[in-house]
Design goal:
Radius of gyration of chain B: 26 Å
Strand order of the largest sheet of chain B: 1-2
Number of domains of chain B: 1
Strand order of the largest sheet of chain D: 8-9-10-1-11-19-12
CATH superfamily of chain B: MetI-like
Strand content of chain D: 15-25%
Number of domains of chain D: 3
Largest sheet of chain B: 2 strands, antiparallel
Distance between the termini of chain D: 46 Å
Largest sheet of chain D: 7 strands, mixed
CATH architecture of chain B: Orthogonal Bundle
Structural class of chain B: mainly alpha
Helix content of chain D: 25-40%
Helix content of chain B: over 70%
Shape of chain B: globular
Radius of gyration of chain D: 26 Å
Shape of chain D: globular
Order of helices and strands of chain B: HHHHEEHHHHHHHH
CATH topology of chain B: MetI-like fold
Number of helices of chain D: 16
Oligomer: heterotetramer
Chain lengths: ~325, ~350, ~375, ~575
């Protein structure tokens, strides 16, 4: 097993607002190993995006605050105590990130080229000409045709898929060891989605970087991930390899998610959905947070459940019925 | 996952080449200019009739109190061509207009063209300077306020700028005269004080060229301050709003995720986007500045066109009023056009399809 | 309900009966608490100072009646409102909040805006009860030879003016003029602007271009020429000033509403209304205009302040309200000749304008932040 | 964008700053021809007449007032006070001027002689006066000027000046190059117009059709005078700059002391005071009465005060039935405490007027008992007598028909006029008259009161009295439809006296008639006369040689000098 690149433990990112304290991320732990692809899945509002932004410390503080006791260790270095300067040295260089909305993630008033070269010149100290050549190369690498022309175009002249490719090029530019991809395909057409995922997988293989893929779509997870973290209401509810999770989901929530996935073998059946919505982060239910929506709820669910390791595997789940 | 790096299908053809943008720009400017002609002529014509229809007879004003009889008044009217029917005067005015002659200003005793040539540049200098200061201050303050939303600095800057904005312009101007001219020089004996009026000192001719530049700037300080302080608050307010919107945008987060220092994130990525809507405000602010000059030029005895038009209306100096408002309107139209062009330059997404 | 809470409620009700607004204030609701308490204190002071006066005013001249009834009705309203509010706030629980409640909450978070709002409420109350609190008649001239331009004194707290009139009383009466000019002129311009803008935005096409070209022209039009021509052509009056100001301010509202309607037009609920076959008029008046209201409210609030300043500018150009009626603008303009030797003449009305306009702007900014979800943090 | 604007602004500041002295040279062909000629002549004259070795010579003096010099130096079309002052004492020359006893003395004219029967006057012109382009000033210039101002096509504003002179060619005769005779009908003070109207250069304006004189660039773009100061530049609404004329005749005082005289128009009085206090201007013409105190308080400043020529009055429209009764008009005057206005709003710098005869006039009778001294009780009685009684107890009097005595009092926005209107409103309400002040923009107001519509009831106005008084246009019955017959009273006594006065040559006869005239006016009360306002001038003490009296602020401008001891 390769070494641990990123280790998040007991991460609590809370939002302090007038309406109360929103415990968006409430004690999340997981780790990413070098070269692997870890997926984080969950419905919107479960805290997965906040988790990813917390790693790069990109959340506006206030209102957000990473509570004491949390820890994010990247390659042996504790990030939560790091200076802003150190964080900037890491961002875009060691750890880079691509976002959900390719339409709005690129600055509309600068050319694609200048947005790529920015990171190159900052972190890799290239001069203007070198950076431009490298930018064109990167655009080619992410599959943009006519790269030497496109490099001078503005984001609005590109399609959504192309823009996401540009985002990936920016993220790749400094050969990061960890790429955080926050719902990279959600806003794209299905055909483009597949291309982008393929591209990501291919690049990971070539550059040997780890990928932390945030998504709500288990289908995506199945396609590209090695391991999965399932999040619900600010907490991790289940962890395991893709095969394990898909074959033997333990937590009722995970099962619910899987049931709502269209599958070839279940054609003709109604797709199931989980009733209800994720509760408000200022007002998590006491006890099991999924209890209200759980079809298998019992009295014991009124008590907060710890994460339980399943057997001697690396799998953990947060349900009292998960048999060890 | 075999050939993931295959060339992506060119799913959308949105590319517009730079060359076409350039061609669009000049055609757009031309179309706007042509469109502005009826607007400006329309405004001038309305002013022509409004001023003519206002009661009062300029010829009477040219008589000293106590003297004169109706014959003299009639003769003055004949000499000035005011005895002709209004439509004839209008046609004559239009004619003189197209020859660039603009007629004769009887309240200033000089051809309108000469009067405008002497006063309009002064007004442009004052308003240009005031606008530059107002936008400079407004943009800086608005940015600080947005970056530090709801902080003490945000509130204090708001209140300070709003305080000046809330002062009636003439009162602010007179206060500046009282404080920074009289009090500063005579009472507090500060080393720096500013002249209360005029564009240059009376010994201007004896100064070196550096001295002359300094003298002009020295005289600009009070009127430009008075004019710009009231504008800066509005600009800062829009800038704050615009900046607040922009710094919540994804691309600002992208910039941060690249590891850019905060300074670059704000001043390179956010500011340029936040500025675009501010640029179009030049078009809104120029008429405001021009209105402001009427009062400011009076207080500071600045020989400009705002004050000139006001006096000309009082004197029913029709040719001067009409020509003056024509140039004001023209400047406003050109400024709007300039603002739109600048906007388009600042924001590459804008194409000149419609006159926004 | 716990005992503690019930005790709290009882205590709050007692306090509210004596000092309405204090319970709210103590619970951190600066906005409603501040408004209730300061209004209570102001009106109460007026009443206590001369209950006889207040009662006599109820049957006096038109001015006095308004003042008298304002005091009585105001006191009762404040007292009841506070009582009801205290009772309700102890019963109510957190429910889902409407857009307006969210906005109210966002607004009351903004301390500066809340202070501005309290100031505005007080200003309007003062303007209404002026006949009961002004120490002198605003146009009463005392001895010209000995009483003019007297500085601050006990009989004339803010001094006397160039015609030996009491400056404080003139400022108090001037508040009525300045505030009504601001309010009515903006009312006129907002109404016109909203309809013109809504029609242009809704119908689009030729209607839109014609209207907007006209608006462009009015905006580029040197407003002053029009003002002077109108003021020269008609006899000067309070209403003329209001109309002139009202007619010159509408184009910006029209642009604002048009832009808003253009974006609303494509939104789902309007499309739905269309699909349901609602008439154009009904969509425009029933759906589009109400939804364009928030930005218009902001613009109107800011506009009132601007109009008060603009009126002062007109006074400087001798185009303001007719003497001897005092408006703040005309008081500064008349007092500016005495800036070197009787500073109080222009300073106090000037400060009155500054604080009023400041208050309107703070409230306007607060509203903008509160009503525009994009600016909420 | 910001940078762009800054570049623009800096560029324009530099562009303006880079030129020589700020001088507007008109592009008009006339000016293009004339200005180089003046410059050349002035350069020569400076060599020919070196500045005397005296440290009083030199420096720049700046005078600030709140108005422009409308129509500039063209004496044939300009007649307002500031313009006339500059014609008389700065840029042009008049034939005669007044000494400090207000007796005529020669100026451009060396001497003059009346015909026995007073039907003509013959002037001898000085032979050492030159136009500022080098041409000599002679009798032809005088004749040209006379023809121009008496030609109706010129529309000389003060037509009443010439009502006793023979207009046109028949009225003027050049006897030789330096002698000219002007014909007239015998009348009082026949020299007066020649004190006011500056002589114009025939060689420059002789070809201009009279009806185009007004529009000629000579007036405010490039005047060429012959007086002690040479025109240098004029910026509209800003300043006139004149330079000392080194060739000004020694006999008349020679070259002025200051090198440069600047006239500045500063519309805002607070700014004017600030400029005077901070040394931006040396002379402030007409500070407000309150500002006078600031001038007195400043140790570097000196306040000059002299009797003014202008008086303020309220004109009643006697054409209206309710104002046709002299008793009503008298009562309106009696109901107002005019002295309190003089003491209050004028700060004591003025005196009550009872007629249009100014205090400096030889016929002014200070002892004349006015029937309109402040007397509210008397006013009430007089109104009762005229049939105005408060019949319905609302505090306003009504006549027998029940019409209330309500009068709209119009004024143009000016603080002193507004004060009169406001004080009248307050004080006349005490005697049962409802006055409604109404501010009307000046041009509109003039139109309302001077046109035949006479759309007013009462109006606050001011007149400027000249040394030679002539109220024909105001009160003579046959002028009732002329513009300035505001009140429209018709009084045979006044008609007779006006006629007799205008032709009375002998001063003693004239004085007696004036006394009678003042009585008649007081009786008729076409106006409620308020006051003559003193002229006040704030002067920086560094400026010496300043003498000011009723002749005007600029009377001794060529003798002003900057105290060599001043910093």
């Amino acid at each position: 097993m390769s070494k641990t690149l990123l280790s998040v433990s007991d991460l609590r990112t809370w939002f302090h607002t007038d309406q109360g304290v929103g415990r968006a991320v409430d004690g999340v732990s997981f780790e990413v190993r070098a070269g692997e692809t870890l997926g984080i899945v969950g419905e919107s509002g479960c805290g997965k995006t906040v988790t990813s932004l917390s790693i790069l410390r990109l959340l506006p503080e206030p209102p957000a605050r990473i509570e004491p006791g949390s820890s994010i260790v990247f390659d042996g270095e504790e990030l939560l105590g790091a200076t802003q300067e150190r964080m900037r040295a890491l961002r875009g260089n060691e750890i880079s990130m691509i976002f959900q909305e390719p339409m709005s993630s690129l600055n509309p008033v600068y050319t694609v080229g200048s947005q790529i070269t920015e990171a190159l010149r900052l972190h890799r100290k290239m001069d203007r000409v070198e950076a431009r050549t490298e930018a064109i190369r990167l655009l080619g690498e992410v599959g943009i045709p006519d790269a030497d022309r496109r490099v001078d175009e503005y984001p609005h002249q590109l399609s959504g898929g192309m823009r996401q490719r540009v985002m990936i090029a920016i993220a790749l530019s400094c050969e990061p060891r960890l790429l955080i991809a926050d719902e990279p395909t959600t806003a794209l057409d299905v055909t483009i989605q597949a291309q982008i995922l393929e591209l990501l997988a291919d690049l990971r293989a070539r550059h040997g970087m780890a990928v932390l893929l945030i998504t709500h779509d288990l289908g995506v997870v199945a396609e590209v991930c090695d391991r999965v973290v399932v999040m619900y209401a600010g907490q991790v509810v289940e962890t395991g390899t893709v095969d394990e999770i898909f074959a033997r989901p333990v937590h009722p929530y995970t099962r619910g998610l899987l049931a709502s996935l269209p599958a070839v073998e279940r054609r003709g059946q109604r797709l199931e959905s989980i009733p209800g919505t994720v509760p408000n982060s200022t007002d998590w239910p006491e006890g099991c947070r999924f209890a209200e929506r759980c079809s298998e709820v019992e009295d014991a669910c009124a008590v907060q459940q710890p994460l339980v390791q399943l057997g001697n595997t690396s799998r953990v789940a947060r349900c009292w019925r998960a048999d060890p | 996952m075999t050939s993931g790096t295959a060339v992506a299908p060119n799913d959308e053809a949105t590319s517009v080449t730079e060359g076409r943008r350039g061609g669009d720009l000049s055609r757009y400017v031309l179309r706007r200019l042509v469109g502005a002609i009826p607007l400006v002529i329309g405004i001038s014509s309305i002013v022509f009739f409004v001023v003519h229809l206002a009661p009062g007879d300029p010829a009477r004003l040219l008589l000293p109190p106590g003297g004169g009889d109706q014959d003299v008044i009639d003769q003055i009217r004949r000499n000035l061509g005011l005895d002709q029917p209004l439509h004839i005067q209008y046609v004559k005015w239009l004619g003189s207009f197209f020859t660039g002659n603009f007629g004769y200003s009887f309240s200033q005793g000089a051809p309108v063209r000469a009067v405008l040539a002497n006063t309009f540049p002064n007004t442009l200098l004052l308003s240009g300077f005031a606008l530059a200061v107002a936008f400079g201050v407004g943009i800086v303050v608005g940015t600080i306020q947005a970056v530090r939303q709801y902080s003490a600095a945000d509130s204090i800057l708001s209140v300070v700028l709003l305080f000046f904005y809330s002062m009636p312009g003439f009162w602010l101007a007179l206060m500046l005269v009282l404080m920074l001219s009289y009090q500063a020089r005579n009472i507090w004996e500060w080393p720096i004080w500013f002249p209360a009026s005029a564009m240059v000192s009376s010994d201007f001719g004896d100064l070196s060229s550096v001295g002359r530049l300094a003298d002009r700037l020295w005289h600009l300080v009070l009127p430009a301050t008075a004019l710009s302080l009231s504008l800066a608050a509005g600009i800062a307010r829009y800038m704050r709003g615009s900046m607040l919107e922009v710094i919540r945008q994804d691309y600002v987060r992208t910039a941060r995720s690249k590891g850019l220092p905060e300074r670059l994130v704000i001043f390179k990525h956010a500011l340029r986007n936040a500025l675009s809507p501010i640029i179009t405000m030049v078009g809104v602010y120029i008429p405001m500045v021009f209105s402001g000059t009427v009062i400011i030029e009076s207080v500071f005895a600045w020989p400009g066109m705002g004050r000139m038009i006001f006096d000309a209306i009082g004197a029913r100096d029709y040719p001067l009023v009409v020509a003056g408002t024509f140039f004001f309107a023209l400047t406003v139209v050109l400024a709007n056009l300039l603002a739109d062009v600048l906007y388009a330059i600042a924001d590459p997404r804008i194409r000149y399809e419609s006159d926004v | 309900m716990s005992d503690e809470r019930r005790d709290g409620a009882a205590w709050a009700r007692v306090v509210s009966a004596v000092l309405p607004g204090l319970p709210q204030l103590l619970r951190g609701r600066v906005g409603s608490g501040g408004i209730l308490l300061t209004s209570w204190l102001l009106l109460g002071a007026v009443f206590v100072r001369g209950p006889g006066h207040v009662l006599a005013a109820l049957t006096g001249s038109w001015d006095e009646r308004v003042a008298g009834w304002t005091v009585l009705a105001g006191l009762i309203a404040v007292w009841t409102w506070s009582g009801v509010d205290v009772k309700r706030s102890h019963e109510a629980s957190t429910r889902g909040m409407s857009q307006w409640q969210l906005a109210t909450r966002a607004f009351s978070k903004n301390r500066m805006a809340v202070v501005g709002l309290i100031l505005i409420v007080l200003l309007y109350l003062v303007a209404l009860v002026t006949p009961l609190i002004a120490p002198h008649h605003p146009n009463e001239q005392y001895d010209l030879a000995s009483m003019r331009l007297i500085g601050l004194s006990a009989t004339h707290p803010l001094g006397t003016d160039q015609l030996a009139r009491d400056v404080l009383s003139r400022i108090l009466y001037g508040a009525r003029i300045s505030l009504s000019i601001g309010f009515v002129a903006v009312g006129i311009s907002v109404t016109i602007g909203t309809f013109v803008g809504a029609i242009a935005g809704f119908f689009g096409g030729v209607v839109d271009s014609v209207i907007m070209r006209f608006v462009d022209m009015v905006i580029s039009f040197p407003r002053l020429v029009l003002l002077i021509a109108i003021v020269a052509a008609f006899d000067r009056s309070f209403f003329l000033i209001i109309i002139v100001l009202g007619l010159t301010l509408w184009p910006s509202t029209a642009r604002l509403v048009r832009a808003e309607v253009l974006s609303l037009r494509e939104r789902e609920f309007i499309q739905a209304a269309r699909a349901l076959g609602f008439s154009k008029r009904r969509i425009l008046v029933g759906h589009l205009i109400p939804n364009a209201v928030p930005p218009v409210i902001v613009a109107a609030t800011l506009g009132i302040g601007n109009t008060i300043v603009l009126e002062a500018g007109l006074s400087f150009l001798s185009l303001g309200v007719q003497a001897p009626t005092a408006s703040w603008g005309s008081m500064i303009a008349d007092g500016r000749a005495h800036m070197f030797n009787a500073w109080w003449l222009s300073t106090f009305p000037g400060l009155a304008i500054v604080f009023t306009v400041l208050a309107f702007n703070l409230v306007g900014d607060g509203l903008r932040d509160a009503l525009d979800p994009r600016l909420r943090s | 964008m910001k940078n762009l604007l800054l570049v623009f602004v800096t560029a324009s500041v530099v562009a303006c700053g880079g030129s020589e002295a700020p001088r507007n040279v008109s592009s008009d062909p006339f000016c293009q021809r004339v200005i180089p000629a003046v410059d050349a002549w002035l350069a020569d004259a400076r060599i020919a007449h070196p500045t005397p070795d005296d440290d009083r010579y030199g420096g720049t003096v700046v005078v600030g007032t709140n108005g422009e010099i409308a129509d500039g130096m063209n004496a044939a079309v300009a007649a307002d006070y500031n313009a006339t002052q500059h014609h008389q004492f700065v840029n042009l020359m008049t034939l005669i001027d007044f000494d400090d006893e207000y007796e005529p003395r020669g100026y451009l004219a060396e001497s003059w002689e009346f015909a026995e029967d007073m039907t003509s006057v013959t002037f001898r012109i000085r032979q050492d006066v030159f136009w500022h382009d080098g041409e000599q000033t002679d009798a032809h210039d005088v004749a040209f000027t006379y023809l121009a101002v008496t030609n109706p096509e010129t529309a000389f504003p003060n037509a009443a000046f010439w009502s006793h002179y023979v207009p046109g060619e028949a009225g003027v005769e050049v006897l030789d190059d330096f002698t000219v005779r002007i014909r007239m009908r015998p009348h009082s003070m026949p020299l007066d117009p020649f004190r006011t109207v500056g002589i114009l250069p025939e060689h420059l304006l002789g070809d201009v059709p009279p009806s185009e004189l007004k529009q000629h660039p000579f007036g405010s773009q490039c005047p060429v005078g012959n007086g002690p100061f040479v025109f240098y530049t004029h910026t509209a609404q800003d300043r006139w700059v004149f330079e000392a004329n080194p060739a000004f005749p020694e006999e008349l005082g020679g070259r002025p002391f200051v090198n440069r005289y600047v006239y500045r128009a500063i519309p805002e009085q607070t700014t004017l005071l600030a400029e005077l206090l901070t040394g931006g201007i040396d002379v402030y013409v007409q500070p407000t009465p309150e500002q006078a105190q600031n001038v007195l308080d400043a140790e570097q400043l000196d306040l000059r005060r002299f009797v003014g020529r202008s008086y303020m009055y309220v004109g009643w429209n006697a054409r209206l039935p309710k104002l046709s009764d002299p008793r009503v008009r008298t009562a309106l005057g009696m109901g107002v405490d005019r002295q309190s206005l003089v003491d209050g709003t004028l700060g004591g710098y003025g005196r009550i007027a009872n007629s249009g005869v100014p205090p400096f006039h030889f016929a002014f009778d200070a002892d004349l008992e006015s029937p309109v001294s402040y007397d509210p009780a008397g006013a009430r009685a007089l109104l009762e007598e005229a049939g105005w009684v408060d019949r319905d107890g609302d505090g306003v009097r009504e006549n027998a028909a029940g019409e209330p005595l309500e009068i709209v009092l119009k004024y143009n926005p000016h603080h002193l006029r507004q004060a009169i209107a406001e004080v009248m409103q307050a004080q006349l309400s005490e005697v049962g008259v409802a006055i409604t002040p109404q501010s009307v923009e000046f041009t509109t107001l003039i139109d309302q009161i001077a046109s035949t519509r006479r759309d007013f009831e009462g109006v606050v106005m001011g007149w400027n009295a000249e040394f030679r008084l002539d109220d024909t246009d105001l009160f003579r019955s046959d002028r009732i439809d002329q513009p300035y017959a505001f009140s429209g009273t018709q009084n045979p006594t006044l008609d007779r006296l006006i006629d007799a006065l205008s032709t009375a040559v002998d001063e003693d006869v004239s004085r007696a008639l004036w006394v009678e005239y003042q009585r008649a006016i007081m009786e008729e009360q076409p106006y409620t006369y308020f006051y003559f306002r003193d002229r006040l001038v704030g002067v920086n003490r560094r400026l010496q040689g300043v003498e000011m009296d009723v002749r005007g602020e600029w009377t001794t401008v060529k003798d002003w000098y900057i105290d060599p001891a001043s910093p």
